[in-house]
Amino acid sequence: MLPLNTLRVLCSPRALLHRSWLTTTRQCVYKTVTRRTSTCGPKEDTWHGNKDPKALGKERRRIYSPNPGSSNRSYCAGQVQLNCWSCKQPLDATSPFFCTSCNVIQSPEEDASYFKIMDCDVTFTLDTHKLQKRYLQLQRSLHPDNFSQKSGKEQQYSESHSALVNKAYRTLLKPLSRGLYMLELEGVRTDEGTDSGADSGFLMELMEINEAVDEARTPEDANKIGRDMKGKLAVLTEAIDAALLEGELQAAKALLAQMKYYANIEEKVKEKLSEFM
């Protein structure tokens, strides 16, 4: 596991200003990780410290599950054949919301992951434009208003589906909630993304940034801080993606804690800018 002291140094606000920070972080992750896989999946694949980071993109599909909604823990599980509650015909696994035979809405799959519901790749750097498009598509077809003349069961299923889609969309849209959810899928508990053991020096720098936001007297001053936060969050996003790709869940958890601090400051900057309007 990547030492927490190393994370504190690498994730300090000063270090985040430089692109070389990301390379250092990835090198540390590569040197400490041996990926484990399910006993019914591919054989154990050991990642060596001298692996070229540029090859990362070529290896993505080997680590993330190719099936949205499944995880490394369950991707080899057998599929259970289900039938439509109305016409009794077998359901198509590729159409989880409606029966392809009679077009009747089906009961929600309560244990389905949000990635499966939103038909997204199980990746931290998912395509948010595709996510938004999928959300609008599902809401148009599943919205309760469309089922006002249907049976009580169909109305109930519609309401449940719509609520579940809303929750999945909100969770996957933002990097922080998305990352925490990915850790949750892997059984890693998080306290709302906080890190009670954060370095005092790092917290002091955060206080200084917060004071700078409070003392900003012009939109230009606030915008400068906002740009700095966006830069830090962008670099953190890449580092978190690298950690998750390598299965370094505790490293990803610590990086997500850093992300929450910067995301809070970014929101504070937005509030400050609204005061100038």
UniProtKB/TrEMBL annotation:
GO BP: any one term: [2Fe-2S] cluster assembly
Statement: the UniProt record of this protein carries the keyword Magnesium: no
InterPro entries: DnaJ_domain, HscB, HscB_C_sf, HscB_oligo_C, J_dom_sf
Pathway(s) this gene product operates in, as recorded in its UniProt entry: Cofactor biosynthesis; iron-sulfur cluster biosynthesis
GO cellular component, one term: mitochondrion
GO molecular function, one term: ATPase activator activity
Keyword terms of this UniProt record: Chaperone, Cytoplasm, Metal-binding, Mitochondrion
Domain J span(s) in chain numbering: 112-177
Keyword match Metal-binding: yes
Domain of life the protein comes from: Eukaryota
Localization (cell): Cytoplasm; Mitochondrion
Similarity annotation: Belongs to the HscB family.
Subunit structure: Homodimer. Interacts with ISCU (cytoplasmic form); this interaction stabilizes the (Fe-S) clusters on ISCU. Interacts with the CIA complex member CIAO1 (via LYR motif).
Protein's name in the database: Iron-sulfur cluster co-chaperone protein HscB
Organism: Cyclopterus lumpus
Gene: hscb
